[in-house]
Amino acid sequence: NAGVTQTPKFRILKIGQSMTLQCAQDMNHNYMYWYRQDPGMGLKLIYYSVGAGITDKGEVPNGYNVSRSTTEDFPLRLELAAPSQTSVYFCASSYDGHYGYTFGSGTRLTVV
Amino acid sequence: DQQVKQNSPSLSVQEGRISILNCDYTNSMFDYFLWYKKYPAEGPTFLISISSIKDKNEDGRFTVFLNKSAKHLSLHIVPSQPGDSAVYFCAARPHGSSNTGKLIFGQGTTLQVKP
Question: Which positions in chain A touch B99 (Cβ < 8 Å)?
């Protein structure tokens, strides 16, 4: 049982480049989330999904996009990367949204 | 504005003693509170939670206390062990978010337990 798998673990992007952060879970969880963590700050919600085909914006969605075509996968797309997007990105899932999340191990992204 | 605040960036305690991690929230519109623990290079892991209708929840060495009048949440670890050394995040679920599971996180407190 792998839980929540995020790839890649590390990435360096140049300003203006694009990339997709991958997130997959094998627990048949309906709810999935993308958070970012900046130094000294709490985790901020970027986007979330309550089921396949349903996504919604969180607190800090600008510069990002998501899709949820299957229950298992919830990729996060960065278009036109900016230095402000340098952060650690965490994907998480939850069965019904009521209790604690299961987090992935994170993707550390640096935009230079 | 930070709705969930952990005002102590770090805490150091001796092995075997009690660790108390604190969290304050700025409005009463939360119905569920959680604590997560995070080791370096790993994602946070769920530790313990409490509903807003309760004032205490206990799980082994971990106890969470909720003081609604003071808008204050605390996590007690007794006895503290070196393996408890990690970053601890408190999180709160806004009213009306039970169908989405969205959480608001504090900044985190780094706990160091010295042998």
Answer: 50, 97
